[in-house]
Amino acid sequence: MRGLDQNRQGGPGIPGARRVRAVRPLCHRGPGGGLDGTLRGYRGADAGRVRTMDSYGLLSTGYDLVLEPLNAPLRRAAQRLCPAQPGWVVVDVGCGTGAGLAEYAAQRCTVIGLDPSPAMVSQARRRLGPDADVRRITGPTLPVEDACADLAVVSLVLHSVPRSTALELLDEVVRVLAPGGRVLVTDFGTGRLRFPRGHLTRAMTGLFEVVAGPQHARSCLDYLRSGGLPPLLAQAGLRPTATRPTAGGHVTITVAERSGRTA
Ligand SMILES: C[S@@+](CC[C@H](N)C(=O)[O-])C[C@H]1O[C@@H](n2cnc3c(N)ncnc32)[C@H](O)[C@@H]1O
Question: With a 6 A CB cut-off, is 157 part of the ligand 1 pocket?
């Protein structure tokens, strides 16, 4: 049993959405941890930072306007590499404004969006409609039941958080993956950039990293210097099954599954 216990109507803002199975909203953090939009119960190393600021607060309003021209083609490429099946449970970790969630919902997947930023969560709820299952996360534990996700999407998140947080997130992703489930990670690549596209997109997103704040920029540099995604996947016990560089080599899209061992 994978927590699929009832039918319900997809949100009115979801193009093409139809009746989809709902996943019980579960929170494993215990009392006070939460789905209620508070930060009580937060146990992560960066708790202080999360408690005092939402680094996506202002950025969330212009996020789609500025970044959708770059992000929409990335999502199309990601979905070509890992096409979703109707009925899949898709968990989007760091769902941002919900653009990816809306696309999976339109493909008749059951979607769960998770994001720590109150501003991003409200953008995603606005996009998907009031019934959307968008959950605010307040720490490393994902409020999703074990083994329920056919697909976990982690798009443009891992480079932006400290390595320890990225590992905690991937550990949680492994926990929530259903048997045979896949992880679809879109993030900055560490391979050679093609001229001019790779250099231009890296410069543009580099500017965004700086605007997002010093912690964000530091994490990004650390991510690139420490080899990007492959070592993180290996440490989390995930094995890449398909990889595709895109955006002139600036971004890599990776599909991974449990490797059955931890490096
Ligand atoms: C660059 S945005 C990407 C949004 C979306 N996934 C996309 O592809 O457009 C990064 C998102 O990750 C979220 N985020 C930051 N720290 C996170 C964490 N520790 N766990 C999950 N999401 C996080 C941010 O709030 C933000 O919405």
Answer: yes
